[in-house]
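Severity: low
Component: inverse-folding endpoint
Summary: output formatting inconsistent between runs
Steps to reproduce: submit the following structure tokens with default settings.
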């Protein structure tokens, strides 16, 4: 029997480095908004996928610190801890994630995993001997994260859409073979509609706006981190790569740098992209425009970091304790259905 309680909205943010503006607006803010406004209708699950945090190499002596940094960032972003309709947990504290992954591994083709963009890109860049089996397997663990809690909506940035599609595929495949086992999350298009967007968000790197802003970027020159000095971050905006067309337009194809800054200005001021475009369209001074974006980013980070300083670790610990107990109960129930289906129980 499936859990017939409230539909579930769930997401996770890895702890492999400080979070970026992309992480904040792509994954964190949408779920925090839901937690603040929709928790009477939906169960909200936000977790740290700590097992996913070292699919690419990290400094392991920093991992605990990073996990806690993420938890604090979630609360600073507005996650309400005093709400029973919100669960906050760490993936590795719920062993069903690893156990379901093994089961799903055995129903997933190696070809299918080899075609995942993230895996292909990394393999092309550093060679397959240096890419871990963990990175290869990553989408299957992510599917387990989602399916264990019967999640319907999964707010993520555009870079995770392919993994979400895989989650739907493996869920449908298992349901076809074994009967109604898993809730199939909504298709990516329906997810966007639910979160009030026309497409997935992809904030670009400031130094190279053809690639996404990524927390694992080695130089960090084009990345705005949530905990970094607001003045330093403003400097990165002022140095952002643009073009020589001397006309501000939203055109991601021909003016990716300027378009990215329009996106960032809209997000950090809470205005719509259309409002920003009508304010700046056709103007020629990139200097003035960058200054406006730099001011907005500085103000955004200053405000966010003031909230971060207020976060109580004790309140987080208390929440983790109750949420992780609840998460284990829910996840174990789904795992047991899967174990029975494949004949393990
Ligand atoms: P991660 O930790 O790389 O990123 C966390 C969230 O941030 C989004 N994101 C972006 N959004 C817009 N522009 C960008 N430049 C940008 N960069 C990152 C990501 O799409 C994501 O929403 N596999 C996931 C973590 C995960 C997960 C899950 C998510 C593990 N299990 C289950 C949802 C459900 C990841 O690596 O995200």
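Observed output (run 2 of 3):
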């Amino acid at each position: 029997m499936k859990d017939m309680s409230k539909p579930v909205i769930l997401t996770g943010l890895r702890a492999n480095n400080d979070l970026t503006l992309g992480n904040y607006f792509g994954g964190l803010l949408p779920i925090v908004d839901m937690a603040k406004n929709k928790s009477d209708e939906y169960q909200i699950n936000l977790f740290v996928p700590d097992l996913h945090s070292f699919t690419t190499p990290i400094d392991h002596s920093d991992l605990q610190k990073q996990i806690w940094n993420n938890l604090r960032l979630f609360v600073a972003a507005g996650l309400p801890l005093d709400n029973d309709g919100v669960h906050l947990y760490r993936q590795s504290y719920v062993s069903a994630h690893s156990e379901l992954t093994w089961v799903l591994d055995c129903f997933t083709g190696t070809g299918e995993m080899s075609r995942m963009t993230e895996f292909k890109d990394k393999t092309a860049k550093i060679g397959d001997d240096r890419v871990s089996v963990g990175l290869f397997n990553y989408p299957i663990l992510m599917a387990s994260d989602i399916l264990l809690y019967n999640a319907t909506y999964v707010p993520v940035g555009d870079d995770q859409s392919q993994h979400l599609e895989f989650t739907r595929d493996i869920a449908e495949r298992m349901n076809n073979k074994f009967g109604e086992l898993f809730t199939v999350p909504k298709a990516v298009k329906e997810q966007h509609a639910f979160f009030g967007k026309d497409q997935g968000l992809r904030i670009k790197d400031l130094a190279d706006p053809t690639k996404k802003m990524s927390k694992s970027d080695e130089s960090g020159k084009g990345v705005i981190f949530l905990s970094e000095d607001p003045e330093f971050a403003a400097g990165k905006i002022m140095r952002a790569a643009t073009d020589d067309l001397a006309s501000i337009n939203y055109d991601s194809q021909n003016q990716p740098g300027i378009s990215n800054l329009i996106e960032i200005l809209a997000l950090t001021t809470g205005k719509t992209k259309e409002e920003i475009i009508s304010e700046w369209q056709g103007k020629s001074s990139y200097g003035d425009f960058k200054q406006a974006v730099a001011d907005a980013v500085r103000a955004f980070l200053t405000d966010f970091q003031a909230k971060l300083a207020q976060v109580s670790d004790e309140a987080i610990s208390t929440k983790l304790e109750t949420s992780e107990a609840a998460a284990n109960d829910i996840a174990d129930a789904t795992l047991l259905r899967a174990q029975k289906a494949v004949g393990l129980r």
